Structures are given as C-alpha cells and as structure tokens.
Amino acid sequence: MPDISIVAIGGYNEIGRNMTAIRIGKDIVVMDMGLRLDRVQIHEDTDVESMPASDLIAMGAIPDDRILEGVDGRVRAIACTHGHLDHIGAISKLAHKYRAPIIATPFTADLIAQEIKSERCGAVNNPVVPLDPGKRYLITQDLELEFIRVQHSIVDAAFAALHTREGTILYANDFKIDRTPTLGEAPDFARLRALGREGVRALITETTNAGVSGKTPSEQIAKDLVKDVLVGTEETRSGVLVTTFSSHIARIRSIIEASQKMGRVPVLLGRSMEKYWHTATRTGYAEKNGLWVCGRRKNIDRALKRIVSEGKDRYLPIMTGHQGEPGATLSRVSNGDTDYLIESGDKVIFSAGVIPQPLNVSNRHAMETKLKMRGARIYDNVHVSGHACREDHWELLRMINPEHVIPSHGNLITHGHYLRIAEETGYSLGSNIHLIRNGQELVLG
Amino acid sequence: MPDISIVAIGGYNEIGRNMTAIRIGKDIVVMDMGLRLDRVQIHEDTDVESMPASDLIAMGAIPDDRILEGVDGRVRAIACTHGHLDHIGAISKLAHKYRAPIIATPFTADLIAQEIKSERCGAVNNPVVPLDPGKRYLITQDLELEFIRVQHSIVDAAFAALHTREGTILYANDFKIDRTPTLGEAPDFARLRALGREGVRALITETTNAGVSGKTPSEQIAKDLVKDVLVGTEETRSGVLVTTFSSHIARIRSIIEASQKMGRVPVLLGRSMEKYWHTATRTGYAEKNGLWVCGRRKNIDRALKRIVSEGKDRYLPIMTGHQGEPGATLSRVSNGDTDYLIESGDKVIFSAGVIPQPLNVSNRHAMETKLKMRGARIYDNVHVSGHACREDHWELLRMINPEHVIPSHGNLITHGHYLRIAEETGYSLGSNIHLIRNGQELVLG
Amino acid sequence: MPDISIVAIGGYNEIGRNMTAIRIGKDIVVMDMGLRLDRVQIHEDTDVESMPASDLIAMGAIPDDRILEGVDGRVRAIACTHGHLDHIGAISKLAHKYRAPIIATPFTADLIAQEIKSERCGAVNNPVVPLDPGKRYLITQDLELEFIRVQHSIVDAAFAALHTREGTILYANDFKIDRTPTLGEAPDFARLRALGREGVRALITETTNAGVSGKTPSEQIAKDLVKDVLVGTEETRSGVLVTTFSSHIARIRSIIEASQKMGRVPVLLGRSMEKYWHTATRTGYAEKNGLWVCGRRKNIDRALKRIVSEGKDRYLPIMTGHQGEPGATLSRVSNGDTDYLIESGDKVIFSAGVIPQPLNVSNRHAMETKLKMRGARIYDNVHVSGHACREDHWELLRMINPEHVIPSHGNLITHGHYLRIAEETGYSLGSNIHLIRNGQELVLG
Amino acid sequence: MPDISIVAIGGYNEIGRNMTAIRIGKDIVVMDMGLRLDRVQIHEDTDVESMPASDLIAMGAIPDDRILEGVDGRVRAIACTHGHLDHIGAISKLAHKYRAPIIATPFTADLIAQEIKSERCGAVNNPVVPLDPGKRYLITQDLELEFIRVQHSIVDAAFAALHTREGTILYANDFKIDRTPTLGEAPDFARLRALGREGVRALITETTNAGVSGKTPSEQIAKDLVKDVLVGTEETRSGVLVTTFSSHIARIRSIIEASQKMGRVPVLLGRSMEKYWHTATRTGYAEKNGLWVCGRRKNIDRALKRIVSEGKDRYLPIMTGHQGEPGATLSRVSNGDTDYLIESGDKVIFSAGVIPQPLNVSNRHAMETKLKMRGARIYDNVHVSGHACREDHWELLRMINPEHVIPSHGNLITHGHYLRIAEETGYSLGSNIHLIRNGQELVLG
After folding, report:
1. Can you point out the beta strands (E) in A64-156?
2. Given an 8 Å threshold on Cβ–Cβ distance, is B440 in contact with D429?
3. Residue B22: which of B5, B34, B8 has the closest Cα?
4. Of A142, A115, A144, A147, the residue nearest A128 (C-alpha)
5. Which of B49, B183, B276, C286 has the maximal Cβ count within 10 Å?
C-alpha cells in the first residue's frame, strides 16, 4: 500500500509563501505556490515580475521547491485554494517546472491566469483548470481532488480535500467560520461534518490567528461597521475617501452599498482595484453595471479632478493604498499629487488593519501623518479579520476530527498557539499533531 | 455682572472620582460626586460603606471637596449625569455637607437613592429630584439646569446644560455619539446643535478615549457581536455562560434577545445584576415580566443547581464577574464553588473588556486560568466601548462650538490627546482650552 | 545496550515546576523537583506547606510525576542544580516516593534540608548529599553524576552531567554566561569545552530568555548599576530602602558594598532574607560577621524603629518585597504598618525586575502606588537577569555541540525561539532537536 | 522694568526642531535652531541642504520662526547648547534672518561652522563664537550668557544661563546627571547649586525621558556593557562589527578601548564618523593619532577589503548605520555591497537603541533581517540613554529651585510626565509650571 507524506515547502516557518506537497506513493499534489511580500519589500527596487526564481528563493520570497528533487514522486496537480498572493504569487515562477495542471476555483483561476500573463521572466504553460466548490477533479485513477466552500477575505475560497486510497487529506488554508457572510454562502458545514464522519487522515491548516482568543466576527460585522462609520455621523458634507483590500470584493460591495445610503456615487480607483473588480464581474461576484472603475493613473487623476469639480460630497472614492504603499492612489492623494486636495475635515476611512510588518507600519505612519497635516480625519481599522481565531479552530478540529493535524501557514509562535488548541482537543505533539519546518517531509504513520 | 469659574475637584488628574463645581457669582452647582474604585481596591479589606469621608479622601478614593471651603459661594444644587459609581459613588459620603437637592435622570436618581440607603457611616438627607432629559429645573432665579439626552454604556445618561445670565455651561460627561442605539433614542443632536447656535460659554467634557482613533462603534455593533458569538457557531449543545456589566441594561437586553434565538432561557445572576435590573424595571427600561433574576448567593446557587439538573443547554446564565471580582458569580463558578461545574467545551462569553488596572488584569487572569483548567472555551471582549473616540469628540466640539473647553474626566495623557483635537478645531491652549488639575479654579475670562 | 530516554515531567510547557527524568536502561535519574508559584498564587489562601501532593498536582503547582509509574525503571538519584523554588520546591512533596539520595551543591543542599524540615504534610527521609562542582558522584556502577560550575542569580548553581555507557547527558538549567561574576568564579568553560570534545549525547537546557536578543550582561553590570543609583546622586540625606531577591547573595553583597561607599550601615530585613543569608554564611558565601539581619516580624519592626530614631541617613535597609508580596517587609512599610514612615524624597530601590505574572504586576502596582502617595521616589529595575539570552545559548550550543538538544524550562514560545537558535547552528527539528511536552518520553535514537 | 517672556518656537509639541526665544524687554536671545529629522524622512527624496526654509517649515521639519515677527524685540544672540541636529540643524536655514552672533561651546561651534559651509541654499554670515563652559559672554549691557558644563550623549554639552536684570533664565536642554562620565567631567553641580541659591527666575528644560522611572545610568555603564559584549565571550575569532552614534565620541572611545583589550585594530568607517571624529580631534576630545578613519565610500570599501584580506579577527570596524539608514556603511554591508561579506557567526553590535520612529524601526528591521539571513549574530541595545530620567529631573528641579518651570523639547505626553514630577516637588500648573505650545509666548508674571 502506498504511503503518504506531507512535505513542508513554504509557509511553515513564516506567514507567506505557502506551498505544501502531499505525496501518495509516487504521486505528488502541490497545494498553493505563494509569495512572501515582506521579503520582497525589504530589498529596495525589487521587481518581482522580472526576477528569476532562483533569486527570489535566495531572498526567501518564494518557496524553495528544490527540496522536491529529493522526494520520490511526480507532481500530478497543483491546487490553489484562494487568490491571495501568498497562495498564488509564485505560480508564475515555479509552476512551469512541473507538468501538471493548476486547479482552482473560478475566481482564483482567473487571477492565476492573469499572474501567468504578467510574468516577464519565463513562460508558464500549465493548463489552468477552474473547479467549483462542491465539485471533484480526477487527478489519477486513485487520486481525487474536491473543493469545499469556505469563507475568507476573498471570494471563492475553498478547502481542498484530497481523496486517496489511504484516506482523505484536508488542506484547510485560509478560512473563517462565518455563518452570515455578506457575499456567497456560509462554509459548507454539512460537507465538512460528513468528511469528519467519513474519516480524515490528516488536516493541514493555517494558524495565523490561533493566538487570538474567541471567534472571528462575521463579515456582517464589518459591513455594519462600514455603515456605522459612513452613515452614523453628523458631519455629512465633507469629502470622504475609503481604502480597503482590492481583492476583498465582499467588503467593497458593502462600501458601495453604504455609499448609496449616503447618496454618494461610488468610484473604484487604483490598478489593483480595477484588476480584482473586473475579475469579480467576469466570475459573477459583481455586476457588470455602470460602476465607475479607473485603473490607470491618467484615468484616476481625471476621475479625481472631476469629483472635485462636481463636489466631493457627491462621490465616495474607494481606493488603493490602505497600507500606505508608495504609488497607490491614497498615497498619491496624501502627497498632494492629484487634484483631490485634502481639506480640513475630509475623512479617510481605512477598512483594513495595518499588516504588522515594520515596513507597512512605516508606510502607513508616513501616509497618515501627511493626511493629518492636510487636515484629514482618520477612521482606522473599520475591519474584521478573514482568519479563524482560536475558537473557530477548535470548532473545525472537532468537526473534522482528523487522525493527524499539521499546522501550516504560520510561524513557531502561531503554531504553538494552535498546538495548545489541539492538545485541549485531545491531540498529542509528535504522535498525532506534528510541527514541521520548511524543507521537512512528514511520513504519516 | 457675576463671574463664572470652574472648580476641578476630582477626575481631572485621573479616571474616576469625578466632581466639578461651577460657580456663577456666589452660586455653586456641583456636577457629579464619584468614587475611584482602583484606589479602594489596592487597599485590602477596605469597606467603603463603613468608612468616613476623610479616610476615603486620604486614599484618593473620593474627591477632596475641602477645596470648596476656599471658594466664595454656596452650593445650590448637585447634578449627576449618569449612574456609574465614578459619577455617583461619593454622594453618600459628601452630599450631606451641602444643603442642596440632588438632581438626576430617573434611572440615575433611583440608583442614588439606593446608594444613600446603603450607607452605614452617616445620613444623607438631600432631596433626590428626578429630571427627565429635555426638561429643565430652576435652581435659582438666574440659574436653570437642563438635561440633554445622550448615549453611554448605561441608560438615562445626560449632558447637563447650566443656563446662566453669563451664558450656558455644558457639562458633557460621559457619552458616545450613537445614532443607532439599541435602547432609548439617539443623543438629542437637534438640541445640541441648537445650543451650539445659541452659544455655549464653556464645554466641560470627558477625554477617556480621546486617544483612540476613529469613532466608537454603535451599541448596535455590540448587539451584532453578541448574536454572532452566541448563534454563529456549530457547537450548540455545550453550556454557555455570559458575563457583562450589570448596569449595562441595553447590553443585557441584547443578550436576552440572543438567548431567545438560541432557544435558551436567560437567567440573571448576581447581586448587582439584580440591583440594576430591578432599577431598570422600576424606571421603564426593562419589562417586569417573569425573567429569572437571582441576587442573593443562596438563590444563585439554587438556580445554578437547577440549571445543571435540567440541562445546561436549556439556559443562558448572565452573571456578574466580568473583571474577575472575587466573590462575583463567575468567580465562584471558576473556583468550583457552585453546582455549575465547568466541563470541557463549555463556553464563557465576556461581553466586556478588561478595565486596564493591574488588579483587574490579575483578577481576570486568575479567573480565566481556572476556567480554562476546567475546560472552558473563552470568548473575550464581545464588546464596544461607551466612551466617545477621537472623531466623536471632534464632531461634538464642532457642533457645540463653545467659547471655552475644559477637559475633565481623564489624566494628562488623555487630556493631551483631547487638546490636539481641540487645536485641530482651532482652539489654543491657555486661551480657550484650559488644562486644570484637581484643586484648581479656572475663572472664565 | 541500554537505551536512553528523557521524560518531561514538569517545566516543559511552562516556566516553573521543573522536573526531568533521564532513564538509562532501567535506571532513572531525576533532575530537579520544582514548584510553580504563580499557580499557587491564583488560588487564594493556599498554604503549600500543609497541602498534599495530589492537590498541588491538580492545580498544576508541582510536577505530575505519576507519569513515572508508566516508565520502566527505578529512580536511583535526584539531582538539584540550584536552590530556586522552581527547582527544589517540590522536593518535600515528591521525593519521599523514591528511595534515592538527593544530590546538590552545598548551598542548594542546605536549602533542600530546610525545605524538608518545614514540610508539614509528610516526612521526606531521602538522604541529602552535598556535591561540589567539579566533583563526581557514583550513582550506580554505570552511572556517574558530575556537577559543573556555572553562574546564575543564586550562588552554587551547576550543570549536571550524567555520564553513562551510552554517552553523557548534560542537564543545563539555569545559567548565564558570565565571565566577570561578582561572587564565585566564572562558569567552568574549560570543562564544558572538554565535554564538547568528548562528545555529549544530549543537552537539556532552559529557554527562558532565548527570545531576548544579545547576551545577558554580567552581574558586574548589576553591581555597577547598584552603585550608580546609590552613590551617583546629589540627594544624599534622604532615607533609602533597597529590595532585591533574598536568594541573590551576590547582589546583596554588592548592595552592602555600596552601602559602605555611602557611609551607611546595611541591615537585612525579612524572613527569607534571614534564611538565605544564614545559608550563605554556613556555606561560605557570606561572612559570619556582625551584619544586622532580622527575620522575625518583631525584630524587623524593632530594627526599623531604631533606624528611624537614629537617623534614616545612617542606615541602608535591604528588605523583602520586591514583587509587592503581601506581608513582605517593604509591603508593610508601604502600608504604614511600621515605624519607618516614608517621607517625601525617601528613595526605594528595586534591584529586581517585575516577574511578568499578572498577580506580581498587580501587587507591585499597588505597593508602588502606596509608596508614591507617601512621597517615595522609585528606582526600578536596577537589575540584570540571571538567564542566558539568545547569543549565550548560541555560544553554549556551539561549545557543547551535542548530538541531541531538548529544550526544557520554558513554554512553546520560548522553546520556539530556542529552536531557531539551534536551527541556525545546524540542528533540525525532530531529527536532533526535540520539542517534548510535559508527560512525554523521548527515546534517544 | 523690562518684562521677560518665553516664546516657544519649536520642540514644544514634538521631539525635534528645538527653538526657544527669550525676550527681555526689547532684547531677544534665541536658544537652539534644530531640525526634525522624522519629518524630513517621511517625504521621500527630500534634500534638506538644497531646500529653502519655507518648504522645510511647511513640512514641519524646522521651527516656524515667523512668529518672531509678531514679537516686539530684536534678536541679539543665538546660543546652541550642544551639537545634535535637533539643536543646530536649522542654523543654516534660519540664522541669516537675524543679525546676531551664534554662541556655542567649541565642539558645537565647530559643527555649526561645518553646517553653514555645507548649506547650498543661501549664505549664513553670522559670526560663530566659541564659548567654554564656565565662561560668560556679554550680549548687551544688561544681558550676559553663561555656559554650564553638563553631560549628554555628545561632548561639550552645556546649559545656558541668561543673566538679566530681572533674574536668571536657565535653558537646560539636553542633559543627563552623570557623576562618572567616561569623557569630560561631571556636570558642574557646584555652579548649578550656586545658581539655585542665587535664585533662578525660570527653568526651561527637556522632558524626553521624564516618563522613564529611576535615573539614567552613567555612561560608565555603557562602557562596561560594551566591554562585556566585546570581551565577555568564548567566541573570539569571528568577525565583529560595531555601529553607534557618530557624534557620541565618548562611546566611540569606549569601543576603541575595548578593541585594544580584544587585540583588534579599531577602524572608523562612514562619512559622519569621519566628520565627528575629526571635529573631536580638532577640539581636543580625541587624539590626532594614527587611528584609521575613512569617510568617503571609496576609502571605506578599500578599508573593508583590506580588513577581509588581512583577517576579520584582526580588526574592529566601527561604522555608521545603527538605525539602518540606507547608504550607511552597515546597511551597505548588510546588502552585500562591500567586500566584507557577513559569514555565519560574525557579530554585529548595536551600541545604540532604535529611535522609536516607524521609519527607523522599519529600516532597522530590514537591515537586521538581511544581516541575519547572512548568518550574523546580533547584539542589540548595548547602550544607555543620554537623557535624564524621572529622578534626575527631580534632582535638578530641587537643585535649581526656579520660580517658574517651562517644559520644552517634548510632546504633551512627556511634558505631562514632567508636570507630575514638578507637582510632586511643589509646583502648580498654570501658576509656576507652564505648558506652552509652539507659537505661544509666555510672559513671566
């Protein structure tokens, strides 16, 4: 009988650059191929799109997949479970090494196709296969991939269940337990519970927020917060700018909805705003209606000019720049580089937290300082997380009840928090919960 | 023409023991007489109810009102703007020194009457006069007190506007700008805006959260969070305990409402739970229906026994102890002193934050550790604050547009944050915004 | 050939209650039997001395040694590597279960004998055998124990090397790399380096400060800091009180030395001050000269009275209470319970940090608040740690170069930090560095 | 009789860009003209040397001295009390507006002359007059300036006492109470105490560390720490790099001294290292001996090449880059841009803390990450502060006993901490301790 192993390639020692290989006998299925953005950021003037994989590996920015050379097997498929860069951002650098299809939910697949197209360093020819949650894909005679609907801070997120003769491996990165999502349906708890009953050989799961007590609030709470900030004020005539994650379609829709309550016209501004919104319209997550969306700098500047001339109080610009990224629309506004000049009392709403990397903290600080010097009022962290917290993990673990648990997508501290949750549920380190490090292979007993 | 001065008696150097005197010529109106609980707590075995005022003054627990002896005037009225102990807790120690009525909104007045009754150290005979928000009380020929409805984490909170020949003084402690409260109506913005138009001589206001960016979320958000935690779970059969502020009637009602969605019977447990709930029923903030409320230890223990015997999954006990106070119901549960024994998977919901005093932090830590050792799952901070944040202060200040601003109810750090808000609105330190310290009198220019 | 295993009994999941068993074939040697004080503290009115072991195990206060029942072997010796309570505090509760001698360096052995004597719950009859660092003790034909001199925040600290036919196991808890100690000699680097050359099978080591960058400063720095604070001031006539760890004889000697530079007479006050100082004089770490030492409350109070009457500026009282422990001498001073009344400008020097447990933080806060209310000036953290920091661990690991490393004496977070150090040195998780949890046995490959 | 006023121009609302004007009748003396570096840093590609004053004022980088236009008087002298950029960095932008000499201690005067020379935007022609501590300078018939020796993290720091007919104003920015400095003598306590006896009308003083408890350790402690880190190790053959403040001559000398104990040749590398060291040799604070000092990039690179070729273990490079400043020598080393390639085990000693600005934190993080990726071992914060802590302020205040106290050089939070110290010493806000904001003039009563 074929044995099963889990190979930690990336994301086991850090947040970012996720990549896991699951080997069943001589067949390998790769889960995710992600980018670690903060490693790119600390090297000034790094142009990821034109850098070769070897350099990106050396700087720790993408998974070091050379360890697969020592693993006895062939990659049969690559599955990506959602469209964030730390899950798909290395596809264009690494996938061509493997003659295998890339399987992803429709929204994710569309993004992957765009990633591949924008790559300047080499050609990735792997077929990209969209697969709906709830559906299955036959990888080999003995290997079947199933996507299960979950919720995360991007649409079309899924768990990947790999059904093998030796049992099912459930790859559960990233997710939140949200019973009242604002876009799409709740996670497919019925299917997850059924999997638990059928028996799961191993659960590979993220630990990002395992140290945060309680449960992650529903995205509905974020929607309420957005509305509360935008509508629950006595100052209704000033300029209002909102910035949020471009890929967070649900959130953007909540902001658009609130803009209607305010009687303002929403406008999406920024290159990645355009990219993700268009992807969403193509895949049915947003309507192809007449929403004003500007991606190119020239168009953005023209839009801002028009907004100012027609009246700031008639529009709600929704823009890139929530982390203070240089060159993003809000950063340019903060520098006074556009016609939208901040005046005393204008509001800037961050529907996002600060990603706790020193460079983000610094960029945000610089941008906020400039905005405040111009008189802006700042509304920070109008946001809820997309990652499961401690009690959500506890629920999932009890629901799935796997033989083995392998924390991935985190560092030793977040894995340590997860380990305690697992111990409280009855697992024991080294016996059925396993800490592995990038570059290690765990053979399931 | 009579001059006006503001005398900082307590709460200007610290959070707690609020007391302000406003002198108009020879007439003085006192605003609030509060207790500073953390000063009581660091002295072990302190029994406030039987301690004389002088000792409590010496330990910094109540305002040092002896400074009024040097102020040339007579106290004509004492107004309390809401029912928290840091606003009314020194009434029973200090009010008898002044031959003046105590004026408060109905809920607050009821609590004050109870405070006075429970005092063991001396008799307070001042009349307690309930006054509805929106109504006025004639103190002297030339002095009129008006209450204006606001929102806070307790019902029936009000601002006090003191109308004098020299203009209006607005005492605004404590409040939040909540346009969608879950109990009672939104603050009376129309009246506040009218006051602003009429002209306000001085605004005395709290600064507790002036350093917290953005706006305080509506209590509606807390209600949503409570529901999300209680209902948004796949683990529906375990025991669930909730603890929150006894005086936060709105929150308790949200919890009761959620209990109905869960199909569980709510039960209020704890001495102060009973006290505030009964006050709420008497004043119309809660229905006098058959809700199960137990205040005495014997009754609490009997109730918990019955809950266990009939099934933990049929009840939702709502209890005291959110700060880990020794002797509170949840503390006793955590010690295994009741029949409600925590089992693995039972949930404990804290619909409260930890008040950031070391003793609270320690008590909470001890209680949570014990609960976890018994297998409890902890849901922390299912809560939003009742204090205005930075942008709420900015809004209020622009709405009222007072000649002078005097930060009260805070320390130098929170006052410093407020000062910056005021400077951004056009005020200038020493000229029309004034930092004063406990024991100082500010004569308005 | 006999196999070797390491059994994690206590201190592997937490800071405190250290206990490790090393099994060589059927022979077991136990290292340390400690108490976890913070678990005692959160249960009010816990009297450790009169509680049975089972209760203390249930509350997580002492190691759960019942797991040894499932280990196939017999305890032949118990070795304690220094005299802190988290290493010897459970001797009086657990040692009697094993017919084995307790081996410790002289200072430690003296403390153990006192622990045993003060136990009220049962009789511990194990012989206590003093063993000097550099000396060896034959446990069985095939098992030899060697103590190696190190430095820590208590005198006579040692590593324990267990020489077996299968190689040497080095138990290295707790230590600092101090080349310029103020009492005793530097760690025996020559012997440690020799051990490294001979080959060490496994290193078991603490991780308390593994997350703190750099090296722990020498105790010489603490001595300099003490002198700087006491002598480097222009205010030389006020009362000065010092509090520090009673067991930290080196520090106390530095304070005494500084007192002489100040021209003040040092006085040791407090029950544990007396206990440790007398132990130090018996074992040659302090002179039996006429130093004034008071342990009993009556004597302390008399001494403080005399100090006040003769002049605060003639004495330097060195007292218990650095963590604000209720009942300790400084706590009593802060409450005004002695004749030494704090006056404005009196200085209180904490030659200790705050142990980061909420109860300590709370106790310290309460005590400092009271001291400040009386006018005291506070000098905090005139101290350096006794635990190795990151680079010290890195040095030790390279010096010893063991086949296997087992982090002990820490929690998952500190172990995680250590793991990274070991990885940087070439070790690999699961292969030659092993994370084990309380209750687990690791068989060395 | 002429009245006296204090005009807060810069540094009263923030750390940085210090500038104070003291007006005595119609005569004005300006104290310090500094730069706020973090405001420069958040604006990318800002070239201070070629920017006009107006732009730098607009971005808050230099004091807005236009408020002096509204002050009735003429600037008679500009005094700079030490050579850090936040005290002299705006001289080259602002001093030419005033026909007045610039008076400074010799080391400071030399730096000012260099600042003026490097200015590309306009000509500053004011005479620069060196004045030794202990000496006096007659500004007008009625105005005399005296410098009093203090200690700070740069040599030749002084207090400025302005003797007027209305009494003495003591400007005390920045300082530490160090009785055992390693370079130069202790502060002139005798003169300070004499000033206190003679009577000081007003004390203007910094509050940077007023919130830090205790006393700032002597620079002797830093020297001991440096030695402990460099010499107190068993790893003696690896490469060692040290980085520290270029202007901190005392520290650099301690490092040089330790290098001799290590048997390594010290080498100073970096443009500002060269600048300050040469200034020190010119002014007698360092010997003009054969120390190897390289300022230009070409020379630095040549030196590093030679160090590597002759053996890393023969040299101790002391370099710029402690805050991770892009382009500084250590940053270039971390990027692999020099021949000194970091190998596993090489040590990097930061004899500096991280200046708590987000951009510094980010730069340091990036640099440390790169250094660690190359195998460096990091020794952080081998440092003590140059700013007085709480008890030092308390001592100075009691020593000087001024009629009025004006906190400067800080923000509302640090001023708040200082205010409490002053209150504990008997001062009262608004009466004899005054909080003023940039742009305000305080007329002394």
Report:
1. 74-80, 102-104, 128-130, 136-140, 143-149
2. yes
3. B5
4. A115
5. B276
Q: Which of D129, D110, D118 is nearest to D93 (CA)?
A: D118
CB proximity list for D86: less than 8 A, separation 6 or greater: D11, D15, D16, D17, D18, D34, D35, D36, D37
A:D CB pairs within 8 Å: 40
**With contact defined as beta carbons under 8 Å apart, do C77 and C98 qualify?**
no
Query: Which amino acid, one-letter code, is at D226?
Result: V
Q: Quick one: tokens of D31?
A: 């104290």
Contact C424 D213 (CB under 8 A): no
ipTM, interface predicted TM-score of the complex: 0.95
Distance of CA B355 to the CA centre of its chain: 13
CB atoms closer than 10 angstroms to residue A329: 30
Q: How far is B250 from chain A (nearest CA, A)?
A: 18
Backbone angles phi, psi at A225, to 5 degrees: -65, -45
Let me know: does A12 contact A408? Beta carbons within 8 Å: yes
- Over the stretch A114-153, which tens digit does the pLDDT of each residue have? 999 988 877 899 999 999 999 999 999 999 999 999 999 9
Please give the full DSSP string across D235-248, using - where no structure is assigned.
--SS-EEEEE-TT-
- Residues of chain A positioned with their CB less than 8 A from the CB of B422: none
Rounded to an integer, what distance in angstroms lies between the CA atom of residue A378 and that of residue A376? 6
Ranges under pLDDT 50 in chain C: none
**Mean pLDDT value across residues A311-328:** 97
- SS3 of residue D221 by DSSP: helix
The tokens describing C218, both together, are 């020498």
What's the rounded Cα separation, in Å, for the pair A328 and A5?
Answer: 43
Cis peptide, bond prior to residue B346, ω within 30 of zero: no
Mean pLDDT in residue range D386-412: 97
Of chain A, the percentage scoring pLDDT greater than 70 comes to: 100
Cα-Cα-Cα-Cα dihedral sign, residues A252, A253, A258, A259: positive
> Nearest chain C Cα to A437, which residue?
C429
What is the distance between the alpha carbons of residues C131 and C79, in angstroms, rounded to a whole number?
Answer: 10
pLDDT (mean) for D251-269: 97
Beta strands in A83-191 (DSSP E): 102-104, 128-130, 136-140, 143-149, 158-164, 167-172
The single residue listed with the structure tokens 């040339």 is B72
The reported pLDDT for the residue numbered C45 is 72
Inspect the interface and report whether the beta carbons of D398 and C233 lie closer than 8 Å: no
Distance CA A71, CA A74 (A): 9
Helices and strands in chain C: count of H runs, count of E runs: 14, 19
Per-residue model confidence as pLDDT tens digits over B42-52: 887 778 888 99
Q: List the structure tokens of B135.
A: 């109504």
Contact A221 B228 (CB under 8 A): yes
Helical packing angle, D271-282 and D106-118, nearest 10°: 130
Q: What is the Cα–Cα distance from A103 to D76, expressed in whole angstroms? A: 78
Burial class (CB in 10 A: 0-12, 13-18, 19+), B39: buried
Cα A84 from Cα A103, distance rounded (Å): 15
pTM of the model: 0.96
% of chain D exceeding 70 in pLDDT: 100
What residues in B contact A417, CB-CB < 8 Å? none
Within a 13 Å sphere around the CA of D333, how many CA atoms are in the beta-carbon half?
35
The Cα–Cα gap between C5 and C25 comes to: 8
Tokens of A336: 């006074």
CA distance B1 to B241: 60
- List the one residue out of C147, C138, C178 whose CA is nearest residue C384: C178
Ordered structural domains, chain A, with CATH: 4-215+386-444 (3.60.15.10), 219-379 (3.40.50.10710)
